[in-house]
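Predict fold of SDR family oxidoreductase; 297 aa.
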Amino acid sequence: MMRVFVTGGTGFVGAELVAELIRTGHRVLGLARSQASARKLRSAGAEVQEGDLADRDGLRRGALASDAVIHAAFDLDLADWAKGGESDGRAIEAIGDAIADSPRLFVVTSGAFGIDVPGMASERDESPAGGHPRVTERVAAEASARGARVALLRLGVVHGNGDRHFLPKLIAIARAKGISAYVGDGAQRWPMVHLRDAAEAYRLTLERGAAGARYHAIAEEGVAVREIAAVIARKLGVPLVSQSPEEAAAHFGPLAPFVSRDRPTASARTREELGWSPHRQGLLEDLEQGSYFTRPA
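Predicted 3D structure, encoded as tokens:
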């Protein structure tokens, strides 16, 4: 069992990750940027390293005090991806430099939406520079070149109880504007993963992953956007509407580029190499039966 330094350990995905690590016998040292975050980590059974992604010394101390590192934090602002990308890049650089030429594995979180290839994306595909506002994979590769043992874990769109991000925003837009929209024929496909399955993918990457590898936490290769919009329409009792790209830009705002993208993504290699077997409910079932529509508007 390992002592693992975790950034982002109180977020939607990170909190489940911390619980998964502790549940399976690992010790967790979590980065906390506030007293509220520190209390949440301690209540989960983790130790606390005070600091944030801009605190290079704190990141260095946490990494060097641990056997491995999982970087799950990202300052998400859909209207300003560059800001989050800058802090993400600096944090990866600081941690990578701290543990360069050591045996510690550094698991870095990326996103499947950043892979822009024709057809089905796989772990073999690179995320092209400039293809996504996150700089994660470029900076992670630079850290690897300087001697850090980096493994990338690319997440699909994560869903589950406690989600505060992409799907709740789509629901809020549909509720506020009185329609549930999709772009064109709505055949765009999104890779999805349940929160619990994503946490297990992190743990297995930590325990069985190889430096230099790319892994995909993808349970469903591609759920059609029109199917997602149809569930939202039915649950809210609003019309299901197709929009042109121009209409969608005004309707969805910062989310428009994501709603318009077709990003089917496979995870066969990850399942084989890590022994990962996602089995929680899929997205459409979660939307139908989960808590997405029971939360306050």
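Residues 8 and 72 are 5 Å apart (CA to CA).
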